[in-house]
Write a structure and sequence with these properties.
With 241 residues, the protein is an alpha/beta fold.
Length: 241
Amino acid sequence: MRIIITDNYEEMSKKAAAIVRNQIILKPDCVLGLATGDTPIGMYKELIKMHENKEVDFADVTTFNLDEYCKLNRENIQSYYYYMNHNFFKHINVKKENTYIPNGAAKDIDEECRNYERQIKNKGGIDLQVLGIGANGHIGFNEPNINFEAETHLVKLDKMTIEANSRFFSSKDEVPTTAISVGIETIMKSRMLVLLANGEIKADAIYKTVKGKICPEVPASIIQLHPNATMIIEKNAAKLL
């Protein structure tokens, strides 16, 4: 596992964007796994600048998002469908039909999960998966548990995750309690992983991910076993290393 510690959020974002850009240059029709939340926003802004400067072309790229809330329609401004289109897709030349995000409003969630997994496999798997990390060590919405969930699945969100995400909603009561998430096995099958972490609130999770034992109670700890993983960590998030 390669660890890069940066002085600030901006440097973290630029380094992450450069890795994504280089992947696309090497393989223009690559499959990217993408994350949401506060942490990757800066990376998306850098990639938009690179696209505007003609440094990178998304025309043949396919994307799969890690997760989506259940019971939010796609027009809801808190949905990850809205997040991705508002913060990234509408600013680049990726084809809409090549962007995949789980449908949390599907009538049959189990079938939606199975279908999403099939779509990833049909595209040949993920070339580069971008990950954030929760303060409780979750990646995607794979919460601390007694098991590593394998493939795309329905998740009951942890209390800490609901609390952390409540800042995006009018009240804690509005935060969805379930979500669809790509599973640990599917994440680990990605040919390259890039995990981003920013802020002191992530320091404990980063320490356990890097230095702790590999266990479902710290889902991100599984990254220790990946043959091609890079962690880009802002210095406050790395303070315990």
